[in-house]
């Protein structure tokens, strides 16, 4: 069996681990365990699973030092960032604990038997039930919050679905340690093997989504990865949903009055947003529309000088580094002026300086408007606000779009920009930056293709809807119903005969 | 341009209509109109759209006589059945009116700015917004309730999405008349062209889902139709969701005590359920598991005699008739005994008698357990209740599964059957029959593949979720927010800082 290797992106050195790529026999074992674990998770009930999620959060935090040190050596991300990411992962598990305790996520509905315009109607009761074992593909850029211990895992477990994670090859040891932290919390509650399990290797990832017991897949990754996973799913007799978060340019529009009013502050904000975590965030702003006027000139000057004095960022792996350098060069060939050109220093790890590119709005091509993963932003200088409509329509649909304005701006102009962005993104940010995604009830992390492929979010309370399906019971005897659908169970929000009952606390 | 023909299934005669197949130029026109109509629907607001849906319901009922007569000549379904179906279509539009007035479907959530374990969190507000123009493929078997004026159209319009319907070739004139009824109600409210539009012809159907302005598709139809539509969608640069309701066997289990207690009544119920509307219902019970004991014998005897004395049913079209006859013959070749063998009478329209097939449980093959559209049911005789687990696992996942039991039955046996069915269906019916789908809040019409391809329902209040996507506003000024997300708008159910507020009436 192939040994799994790990690479330290700070020096580019590779070494072997004790882990091996997952073969078919092992996959068969863990799929069977996951199928049995689904019954255990169901038997735990909402409150039991909430306790389990809290315990997982605690387990992650209790291993914080080990997790951060392991991830630092595999990702090159800073300790401060990784430390906060462990917190975020724990927060995510706890948020889903709250979601479970609330119970509204079940969308419980009761229609009592009644006469209807179509004759006597039977008693109908509906709620959401788990899909079954879920395959999760860990992302490279968030070794905790979008990986083994990430939001896909947390939301799937909350839904009652066991999770089989394909570990990202960029951080196998972090993945392994995260899996152990989760397993330890689960077994502390008397849970069986298979509530969570990891697989290693590309082939194992494909086998995973082809396995008959796997009922859904979730991915945060590239379009290429999504295509490969979808191709494997297409080999199944029974298709399963793939929830994929893929590619996002996250345009930012700075209106003239905002540039004049607080151009320096916006420049600082943009710099922090596009260079933080080496620009390796799905919400990194890739395009900023800045006015061609004195306020805009000042803003861009400040940006240029911040970029010029910035140190290099360690990128996650060699592939990311090479793609970044190639993409920056392609933008330049396509007509963008480069304020800082990233250089690869041989033998020095996957380190690059940030890159700022500039282009006039008439020269903005589809190529320059495409995503570049890493610390690169393209500044697009525009003359008239009226030109932005058409320009924004050439930007690929994205997770987010941002508008910087001042209170005195023409409401019609802002409204028009909001309308254009609303058709093309899933979250509109006002006077702020898209990075730093808040983990909460109302978060939406998903948008029109290619930012995601589904009408759902992969972050926030509602993301567990992806791993649930509706189920109805018709004229069921009370004792056979899930307790949440029995008449006298009034603890959770339910819709009874069409009327919402908020639930008692 | 090709003229559209209509066939009277009662005599098999074909005649030309004034309708022509839809060409590319016309499709371009109506797609553009639909895109503009989306803005009009959005501007109407929830309450305006609710009024529009009510008006459509009224318009359909005001044209009841014309619609029923037109559909009778195109489908061969009875006047009584078609009359009730017009009522059902109107009920569906009105249900979505109620859903809009309630507003809970928006899943509105507000997270005020707050300190979080990850630092200051921005103000986030989320609700669901329409996807845009939707392609609906009318079904043959419900010329109203699953066709132009059907649940897909009603739920998409409710969501705020214009609808482009591919008319089913089995009832073009009914489709046209239904479209006019809807258009008339829309234009009575000052609505533009493009809120609803029809296309005719297979090629137009494929072009429809390839059109860049079309944002989702919905189908009730065959696996073959779904594959053809998906293949057309796969040609797009940007994939769109296809919500397909496809194939369902709807197994029914009669436990021994129920057969002994009320075998005759169950036989009557089964007969009515599998022969009603010529057995051409997605929820028709195709397999009935009956005990091999005196109670079961009596039940099956009653069924046989009801079938033997039944008249013929007019099937919807030649293709349905031929597929039915061929499938029945294939079941017989696969080992099922035939109590009544369907015969085709040349020149007499698409008329067949109902067919009852019988097989012992050990001889139940995958072929016999597959769907046969039309008035055919396979009776499977079982010896021991314990055998049912494995047998049910060979039945393809379905929309529904039903269990007939008595109060004195072993709870463990019933629970075990419910567990087996719950993994394989979307609705479990107790002591009843799956046909006669109630249109209400808690309905679930969808289940694991191949019954549907999505974690949603195509009937009932929640079916509009298919045509919505979540959208979030971060730190938005109040005036730019949809009114449902403003602090003081407390009319609808909303989740504010994680706490459900039921809304004021």
Outline the structure in words.
Two copies of one chain form a homodimer. With 505 residues, the first copy, chain A, is an alpha/beta fold. The first copy, chain A, has helices spanning 24-62, 64-75, 79-102, 151-159, 172-188, 202-210, 223-233, 256-275, 294-308, 318-333, 388-394, 411-422, and strands at residues 3-8, 13-20, 109-111, 114-116, 119-121, 124-130, 134-137, 163-166, 196-199, 216-220, 242-245, 252-254, 287-291, 313-314, 337-338, 351-352, 355-360, 376-382, 398-404, 425-430, 468-474, 494-496, 499-501. A seven-stranded mixed sheet of chain A has the order 15-17-18-13-12-19-20, sandwiched between helices. A five-stranded mixed sheet of chain A has the order 21-6-3-22-23, with no helix packed on it. The N and C termini of chain A lie far apart (54 Å). The model of chain A has no long low-confidence stretch (mean pLDDT 96). At the A-B interface, helix 3, strand 3, strand 6, helix 12 and strand 20 of A face helix 3, strand 3, strand 6, helix 12 and strand 20 of B.
Quick synopsis:
The structure is a homodimer of 505-residue chains. By secondary structure, chain A is α/β, with parallel strands linked by helices.
What order do the helices and strands come in, and which of them pair?
Two copies of one chain form a homodimer.
Chain A: E1 3-8, E2 13-20, H1 24-62, H2 64-75, H3 79-102, E3 109-111, E4 114-116, E5 119-121, E6 124-130, E7 134-137, H4 151-159, E8 163-166, H5 172-188, E9 196-199, H6 202-210, E10 216-220, H7 223-233, E11 242-245, E12 252-254, H8 256-275, E13 287-291, H9 294-308, E14 313-314, H10 318-333, E15 337-338, E16 351-352, E17 355-360, E18 376-382, H11 388-394, E19 398-404, H12 411-422, E20 425-430, E21 468-474, E22 494-496, E23 499-501
Parallel strand pairs in A: 3-22, 7-8, 7-10, 8-9, 10-11, 12-13, 12-19, 13-18, 17-18, 19-20
Antiparallel strand pairs in A: 1-2, 3-6, 4-5, 6-21, 14-16, 15-17, 22-23
């Amino acid at each position: 069996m192939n040994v799994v290797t790990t690479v330290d992106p700070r020096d580019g050195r590779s070494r072997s681990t004790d882990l091996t790529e997952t073969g078919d026999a092992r996959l068969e074992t863990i799929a069977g365990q996951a199928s049995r674990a689904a019954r255990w998770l169901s038997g735990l009930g909402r409150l039991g699973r909430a306790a389990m999620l809290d315990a997982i959060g605690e387990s992650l935090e209790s291993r914080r030092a080990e997790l951060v040190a392991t991830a630092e050596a595999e990702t090159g991300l800073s300790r401060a960032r990784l430390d906060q990411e462990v917190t975020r992962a724990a927060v995510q598990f706890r948020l889903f604990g709250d979601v479970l305790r609330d119970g509204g996520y079940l969308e419980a509905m009761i229609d009592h038997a009644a006469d209807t315009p179509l004759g006597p109607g039977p008693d109908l009761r509906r709620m959401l039930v788990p899909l079954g074992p879920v395959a999760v593909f860990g992302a490279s850029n968030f070794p905790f919050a979008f990986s083994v211990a990430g939001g896909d895992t947390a939301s799937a477990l909350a839904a009652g679905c066991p999770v089989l994670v394909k570990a990202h090859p960029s951080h196998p040891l972090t993945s392994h340690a995260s899996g152990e932290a989760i397993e330890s919390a689960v077994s502390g509650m008397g849970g069986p093997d298979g509530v969570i399990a990891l697989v290693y290797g590309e082939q194992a990832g494909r086998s995973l989504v082809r396995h008959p017991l796997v009922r859904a897949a979730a991915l945060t990754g590239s379009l290429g990865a999504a295509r490969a996973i979808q191709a494997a799913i297409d080999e199944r007799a029974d298709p399963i949903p793939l929830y994929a978060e893929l590619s996002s340019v996250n345009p930012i529009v700075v209106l003239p009055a905002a540039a004049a009013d607080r151009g320096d502050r916006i420049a600082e904000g943009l710099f922090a947003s596009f260079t933080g975590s080496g620009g390796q965030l799905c919400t990194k702003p890739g395009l900023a529309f800045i006015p061609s006027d004195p306020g805009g000139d000042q803003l861009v000057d400040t940006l240029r000088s911040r970029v010029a004095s910035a140190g290099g960022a360690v990128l996650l792996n060699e592939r990311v580094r090479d793609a970044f350098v190639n993409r920056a060069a392609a933008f330049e060939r396509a007509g963008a002026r480069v304020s800082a050109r990233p250089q690869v220093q041989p033998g020095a790890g996957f380190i690059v300086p940030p890159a700022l590119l500039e282009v006039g709005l008439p020269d903005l091509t589809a190529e320059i408007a495409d995503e570049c993963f890493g610390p690169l932003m393209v500044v697009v200088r525009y003359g008239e606000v009226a030109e932005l409509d058409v320009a924004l329509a050439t930007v690929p649909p994205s997770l987010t779009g941002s508008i910087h304005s001042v209170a005195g701006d023409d409401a019609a102009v802002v409204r028009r920009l909001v309308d254009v962005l609303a058709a093309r993104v899933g979250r509109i940010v006002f006077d702020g930056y898209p990075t730093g995604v808040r983990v909460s009830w109302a978060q939406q992390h998903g948008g029109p293709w290619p930012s995601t492929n589904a009408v759902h979010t992969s972050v926030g309370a509602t993301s567990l809807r992806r791993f649930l399906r509706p189920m109805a019971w018709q004229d069921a005897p009370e004792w056979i119903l899930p307790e949440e659908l029995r008449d006298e169970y009034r603890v959770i929000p339910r819709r009874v005969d069409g009327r919402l009952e908020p639930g008692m606390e």
